Amino acid sequence: MSSTWIQSRAAALTLLTWTALFFALFVACGSAQAQTGSTTLQATVGPDPTITLTRGGQPVTTLPAGTYTIEVDDKADNHNFHLTGAGVDETTTVPEVATATWTVALREGTYNFVCDPHAENMKGSFTVTAAATGGLPFTGLDTVSIALLGASLVAGGVALTFVTRRGRSTRHGA
Prior knowledge:
The chain is of the alpha+beta class. It has two helices and ten strands.
């Protein structure tokens, strides 16, 4: 094998290594950003006949499974906020005007919130879907697998570069 062929292969592997590392970092940052969306929900009931559950000011209709903090603002003594669903049964009480903070683990399924004394008119629901995996949906690879792949490519690139440089200095010295 010629020295030029080895050098071109080493250059190609180095480029591939840097590309893989850049991709791994890009995916890791994107996954972290996707998973760090707000896990705080705002629940409000009263004083008029309204009941809401929002996230970042938007009505909650679908959430990925996970642990959430729900900040409840019960603004009327004739209402309550009652949340039920897979493993969750949290409520404020009538006749209290109060605030509450709940930490709940939401699993796949449908959840309902209601003002018990006015259940016919003051109600809502949302769906909880499977938790995001944080990996690449088209390959099933997760961030750790991609990082390990990148590290393997770096190690291979370093080894090949070392062999190439060693072979070149031996040739020039001969």
